[in-house]
Amino acid sequence: MNLPVLILGARSDMARATARAFAALGHPIQLAARDADSLGPDKADLETRYSVEVTLHEFNALDVAGHAAFIDGLPALPGIAICAVGTMGEQEENEKDPARAVAVLRSNFEGPAILFGVLAERFVNRGSGTLVGISSVAGDRGRASNYVYGSAKAGFTAFLSGLRNRLAQKNVHVVTVKPGFVNTAMTAHLDLPAKLTAEPDEVAGAIVKAVKKQRNIIYVRPIWWLVMSIICAVPEMVFKKTSI
Q1: Is residue 38 part of a domain?
Q2: What was the pLDDT predicted at 95?
Q3: Which residues in the chain come in under a pLDDT of 70?
Q4: Could you say which of 50, 147, 149, 219 is catalytic?
Q5: Which residue segment(s) compose the domain that 63 sits in?
Q6: What is the pLDDT at residue 190?
Q7: Would 72 be classed as within a structural domain?
Q8: Any catalytic annotation for residue 219?
Q9: Number of domains making up the chain
Q10: How do strand 80-83 and strand 54-58 relate by DSSP bridges?
């Protein structure tokens, strides 16, 4: 019997695609987001198309004090939890408005990290589970164009790495996903290069494969590993003269 898959931040395009991918494999789906009732059409579609049970759960990643109660209130402890929570914002606004910067930092790092810490304890007590954190290539190196968002994702990536190593002998696996550019509503205003831009269904397929094969860190499109390796290798004296 397939254990439920919990999708955190279930309103995003990547999250919706991932829910479909796991529902197609017969997993019950738990969709968690703010204003969860608005996901009613998604619930109906998944249930009709894949004949799986789908439940909706109100969830606020920034309410860290309520994370334990949220998890304990689920109808069943999930076998797989996937965190697609996050917001990018605009770098210029994040630089000038501390409140916006705080929202980006908390949404991409603090909230997801604290929740995964609580989930990890539940999984360890059960003796099994998989945690999938959607981070970003933006966290591989701080860049002038998006360092507030990038620093939050860098923190989340480091947290996932430490959690993965801590749980390695506990039968709980942690996957770090770095999608690169993805064609979603959040990036609709950007002119993205086709070779570096994945579709949400492509990300979902990569996540399913990574969970099955117990991969540790994945770049959805392998070319991103090369791109980021080059970017990370540029000496700081040279790199600070760029505007990427």
Answers
A1: yes
A2: 83
A3: 186, 188
A4: 149
A5: 5-239
A6: 72
A7: yes
A8: no
A9: 1
A10: unpaired
